[in-house]
Amino acid sequence: MQFSDFNLSEDVLKSVHRLGYTEPTLIQQKAIPLILEGKDVIGHSETGSGKTAAFGLPILSLIQSGRGIQVLVLTPTRELCVQVSDALRGFARLRVVPVFGGVGIGAQLGAVRTAEVIVATPGRLLDLIERGVKLHTVRHLVLDEADRMLDMGFIDDVEKIIRCTPKQRQTMLFSATLAPRLKSLVHKYMNSPVMVEAKTHVDTSLLAERAFAVHGPDKFSLLVHCLKHETPGIAIVFCKTRHGCDRVARNLRAQRIDATPIHGGLSQSNRIHTINSLHKRGVGILVATDVASRGLHIDNISHVYNFDLPQTPDDYVHRIGRTARAGAKGDAVTFVTPSDVHDFKGIMRHVNRQIPQALLPAFEKITVTSDHKRPEHRANKHHGQEHFWKRRR
């Protein structure tokens, strides 16, 4: 199947070819025809499935410029808001405005009045509504990562916003899970929704999970050792923050390791270019945040490194789901510092399996002197084995 098999607009199809998209992913194959038919859709898909394009391509094919706010996408976080906005801008020549807190409201208030598409976090959008922004022209409503909005306590705000939109609209809800509160939302605000599912399940028989107990100052040295000695192909290194991604990637490059940061501070086109280049080479390291990794389709990942522990157990599942796909083997390696032990035990309870502690290899110590200086090597090797946690029976 090709994107040209769908009844997408000419403008959107040109953008698809320009961005280098080839065959649609499974969630795109299932969702795009339904959305083009005007049906309400509930989508279950995992990270990297191409979800943003699954709703973005058909919706943008259905609207026209100069007719007010026609599309509203609600997202749980500022980072995801920016990512989705960047992606939608790349799909069509329409005015897409991101709306999120933490910045001045005046510029956003002016921008939304001429927008065709708004991508917003719930709290800031309610602030704009209180200042007179109207949503009566919205024809397509998307609740992106609805389960995370529920977890973050935004569902009441989401309901207030939905009630500001016309009843005659198309509604799409994308969520990894469908908790009772979300089911209530579906019954109240969606019209005979069609369920589409495109989950890539991790085959634990092909996935080798392990954890290193390591002190914080030694994490980078251990990462360099692992990447140089046991990571032959494509790997993702997960960090908590954008700054952390930039710092780790820069210091890896100083060690002659081909590493590129991927985070919400980069445009969608830059991220797509990076992924396409990685696929062509078949080797390289991506240093990513959780939010930035969502929506990126990356094949043939041999290793996932949790350099920083994920914020939630579900994020751990999303991360390791990047490898051991399509019958291929994969490795998921987690660095656990003394301050991480409690959260790491919570992850193991969540996945309902013991993640074995691996013996620390002998690795060269690298002292990172500053963000802008080349890392220094120290001659001594680390030989010790740390024991931060024990299995509870």
List the SSEs and their pairings.
Layout: H1 10-18, H2 26-36, E1 41-45, H3 51-62, E2 71-74, H4 78-91, E3 96-99, H5 105-112, E4 117-120, H6 122-130, E5 140-144, H7 146-151, H8 155-162, E6 170-174, H9 180-189, E7 194-198, E8 207-213, H10 219-230, E9 234-238, H11 242-254, E10 259-262, H12 268-281, E11 284-288, H13 290-293, E12 301-306, H14 313-320, E13 330-336, H15 341-351, E14 363-367, E15 376-382
Parallel strand pairs: 1-6, 1-7, 2-4, 2-5, 3-4, 5-6, 8-13, 9-11, 9-12, 10-11, 12-13
Antiparallel strand pairs: 14-15
Describe this structure in words.
The structure is a single chain. α3 crosses α4. The protein folds into 2 domains: 3-198, P-loop containing nucleotide triphosphate hydrolases (Rossmann fold, 3-Layer(aba) Sandwich), CATH 3.40.50; 207-382, P-loop containing nucleotide triphosphate hydrolases (Rossmann fold), CATH 3.40.50.300. The protein has helices at 10-18, 26-36, 51-62, 78-91, 105-112, 122-130, 146-151, 155-162, 180-189, 219-230, 242-254, 268-281, 290-293, 313-320, 341-351, and strands at residues 41-45, 71-74, 96-99, 117-120, 140-144, 170-174, 194-198, 207-213, 234-238, 259-262, 284-288, 301-306, 330-336, 363-367, 376-382. It has 393 residues and is of the alpha/beta class.
Give a summary of the structure in a few sentences.
Helix content is 38%, strand content 20%. It has 393 residues and is an alpha/beta fold.
List keywords for this structure.
393 residues, alpha/beta, Rossmann fold, 2 domains, seven-stranded parallel beta sheet, six-stranded parallel beta sheet, 15 helices, 38% helix, globular
